[in-house]
Amino acid sequence: MLNVFKHTTMYNEDDLLMLSGIQHIAFCERQWALIYIEQLWEENLFTIEGHHLHKNVDNPLESEKKNNVFYLKSVFLVSYKLGLYGKADLIEVTHLTKNNNFNQSNIFDNKNILLVKPVEYKRGKPKIDIIDEVQLCAQAMCLEEMYDLKLSNGSIFYGEPRRRQEVTFDENLRNLTINYALRMHELYNQRKTPLPVYKKHCNSCSIFNLCQPKISLHKAASEYLKSMLNF
User: Fold this and answer.
1) Could you tell me the pTM of the whole model?
2) With contact defined as beta carbons under 8 Å apart, do 63 and 107 qualify?
3) Count of CB atoms within 10 A of residue 102's CB?
4) Is the predicted pLDDT of residue 42 greater than 50, yes or no?
5) Distance separating alpha carbons of residues 175 and 217, to the nearest angstrom
6) Which one of 29, 57, 123, 136 has the largest count of C-beta atoms within 10 Å of its C-beta?
7) Percent of all residues in the chain with a pLDDT value above 90, rounded to a whole number
8) What domains lie within the chain, and their CATH numbers?
């Protein structure tokens, strides 16, 4: 991918795409296009488990404070540089000094004494690729733009091992995040759905039955039918 870390395009309200889609396009461009351009979706066991895991963090009214740490749930996010909007499952804001007046209304008043960390909740185990890290980095870049912050790291909580994995927002991860956001806008503006290409990871795709990637291995429908009938 091109190094576009200094990309400064500013999108407007009408251009904004869903931040959650950046994980999908990092997994598969066709999957992203089928969901966000063609509006196709299919629930399965994995997506249902994911919804259940998010129940504890999907109510913004349940944000809480413990000692000098605020836990903000279901936080709205937007970046006009990335052209994305969405929400963060959880934002941990730690006040690094003792301050009894620390509350949700003035939580970002003094940026020099705050430690801000986005936390994303995922079902299952940590993945071998970085699609979850890209989504978390996009959330961090939204927070940086919204509140004039600089975030160094965040966490992903995985439901199966029930523990967090730390993620560092280094330049390489930021570059990947920007490139995926640019690709989302490119495909959306073209209203273009990439052709299917069957790979091993297709078997874990939530919309495998809608995509039918194996059919694309055959040049014509007649050829596909012959292969199914063992002609």
Assistant:
1) 0.79
2) no
3) 21
4) yes
5) 33
6) 136
7) 46
8) 13-194 (3.90.320.10), 197-231 (no CATH)
